[in-house]
Design brief:
Length: 352
């Protein structure tokens, strides 16, 4: 059943999301100048200037290949935030704002072969365009040749999916511009924690609102892998770990742990980096719930089973229904097991 976002239903949050989306759009346009800038100018010229020229010149210009516009280039590059009505305009503005855009455009045009005709301009390889072509070419190489094994016509999204194949989530009450892999407080030195279970991640978000569940993509290159066998994050039996990284296996002695003892996700994160020199630890089958339960899970239950949408005071819900929904919510959270990853290298993560 589709559920509204329970964390941000105010006009202030809508305005904030709009500001973040527009800031991303400006940055995206800024990044693809000058190729996008040339395409934008070319598109405007075709729309407003070409129709005013003699018919013979119009035919020549319209038949010439056009450089890709900012919008066309960025259509193959995934966004972090949702697009808005003004997205295309903001991306074009971002391309025009980049001072390197016009400079690089002039440099590129100076490098064009002498005598190049207007029909040849659209086929000229600009620096960013050539970089994208090279990325596509390298991604098509077999994995044993350090490629990604993708089709020859692979897209930016396919390359991102191959490099960061795992969906993960980070629940937080903070506004995070970048992930802090150093950790803080009790998790200092353990890395940045992410979870493959969004329901578990939401328990780290304040139930009264104001937090975020940040969706990300992740690579597991260079991670220690262990199995918690369903234990709680702070009470993982050392005998069950079976630690390994790729084909290399580690002993408890390597990790300076004792048999018949317990460890925690925090300690494992520190061990992976400081003792084994790895990029973090991937902890499978672990219970890792934060301090917050979210009452909308109980509301979902009442809506699904009884067709009841509780009012603000829950006056339309009987005591029995309330307790039933509460028990369901508690059982739902307690049943959650997931893979928790302590990431020590920020390059293993990307937004989505």
């Amino acid at each position: 059943m589709a559920t509204q976002n329970p964390y941000s239903d105010s006009l202030l949050m809508d305005a904030l999301r709009g500001s973040l989306s527009n800031a991303e759009s400006l940055g995206r346009g800024f990044a693809v100048a000058p190729v996008g800038l040339l395409g934008d100018i070319n598109s405007l010229a075709r729309q407003y200037v070409t129709p005013r020229l003699p018919q013979s010149v119009q035919g020549l210009l319209q038949s010439a290949p056009a450089a890709p516009t900012t919008e066309q280039i960025l259509s193959n590059i995934p966004r972090v935030s949702n697009p808005r009505m003004e997205t295309a305009g903001m991306e074009q503005l971002g391309a025009a704002m980049n001072p390197r855009g016009p400079v690089e455009l002039v440099k590129a045009m100076k490098n064009m072969p002498v005598g190049m005709s207007i029909k040849d301009v659209g086929s000229f390889k600009f620096p960013q365009e050539e970089a994208l072509r090279l990325a596509q070419q390298r991604a098509a190489l077999p994995k044993d040749q350090f490629g990604l094994g993708l089709p020859l016509n692979n897209t930016a999204q396919q390359r991102a999916d191959a490099m960061f194949p795992f969906d993960v989530y980070h629940g937080t009450n903070a506004d995070i511009p970048v992930m802090n892999v150093a950790g803080k407080g009790k998790t200092s030195g353990a890395g940045a924690f992410v979870n493959d279970n969004p329901l578990a991640a939401e328990t780290y978000v304040n139930a009264s609102g104001g937090g975020n569940i940040i969706p990300m993509r992740m690579s597991k290159e260079g991670l220690l892998s262990v199995n918690a066998k369903g234990r709680n994050w702070a009470d993982i039996e050392t005998n069950t770990l079976a630690p390994k990284a790729g084909k290399k296996r580690y002993s408890l002695e390597d990790m300076e742990l004792s048999k018949n003892d317990v460890t925690s996700t925090d300690e494992l994160g520190v061990i992976a980096k400081d003792l084994l020199g790895l990029q973090g630890v991937d902890i499978k089958n672990v219970k890792d719930l934060g301090p917050n339960s979210h009452i909308f899970r109980a509301k979902e239950y009442l809506q699904d089973k009884y067709g009841i949408a509780p009012d603000e005071t829950w006056s339309n819900v009987t005591g029995k229904q309330f307790q039933e929904a509460r028990d369901y919510m508690d059982k739902l959270y307690k049943s959650q097991k997931s893979t928790v990853t302590a990431v020590q290298d920020p390059d293993l993560l990307r937004s989505r």
